[in-house]
Amino acid sequence: MVEIRVKIQIDAPIGKVWNIISQVDNDSEFWNLTKLLRNTSKKENEIVREIMLDKIDKCSQTITFLPKEAVHTQWTKGAITGTKDISLTVLGSSTLLEAKMNYTISGPSRFFPGKLKEKLQIEAEYALDLIKEKSEGRPHVIPMEPRKFWADMIRG
C-alpha cells in the first residue's frame, strides 16, 4: 500500500481553485504520469474513464465530484487501484488544497514500492504547485541553473 498526502495554501478563492481541479479532462496538464484520457460515461457528478499512465499502464477510474469541496477518484482496474482525494478548505480569502492518495500497486512496479512512492510523492507535489500557479494567475517557470562547460569546471 502506498500512501501519500500533500497540501498547499493557494492565494485564490475556493471557486477559482474548484474551476481548475474539477476540469479533470485537463489532468495531464498537472499530473505527469497521466498521458491519455478517454471518458466512457458521464453523469451529473460522476465520470467513468480509462487513462494511460506513462504510456504503458491502462487503468480505469470513477471520478465523483462534491462541488467546491472535493474530487474523489476511485482507481478500479489496472496497475493502480485505490483512491485519490483532492479536497478544498476555505482559509479566509485563500484556499487549502490537499491531495490524499491510497494506492495498491500491481505489476512489476510492486517490487519497487519505495521508488514508486517517491515518484508519486514528487508528482503530487508538482501537481499541486502547478494548480497553485494557475489559480493565482502566475506563469509556470522552470528554474534554470547556469550551464558550465568542462573548461569552467577545471578552472573552478
Textual characterization of the structure:
The chain starts with a strand and ends with a helix. The protein has 4 helices and 7 strands; from the N terminus they run βααββββββαα. It has helices at 14-21, 27-30, 113-135, 150-155, and strands at residues 2-10, 34-42, 46-53, 57-66, 70-77, 80-91, 94-105. The radius of gyration is 18 Å and the shape is globular. The model has no long low-confidence stretch (mean pLDDT 88). The chain is 26% helix and 44% strand. The chain has a 7-stranded antiparallel beta sheet, with helices on one face. The protein is of the alpha+beta class and 156 residues long.
How are the strands of the biggest sheet laid out side by side? 1-7-6-5-4-3-2
The helix/strand class is alpha+beta
Write down how many β-strands occur, each being a DSSP E stretch of 2 or more residues: 7
Q: Tell me, what's the shape?
A: globular
- Radius of gyration of CA atoms, rounded to a whole number: 18 Å
Uncertain segments of ≥5 residues (pLDDT<50)?
A: none
Oligomer: single chain
Largest sheet properties = 7 strands, antiparallel
- Give the helices and strands as they follow along the chain: EHHEEEEEEHH
Query: What proportion of the residues form beta strands (DSSP E)?
Result: 35-45%
Q: Helical region count? A: 4
> What is the first-to-last residue Cα distance?
46 Å
Mean residue pLDDT: 88
Q: Helicity range of the residues?
A: 25-40%
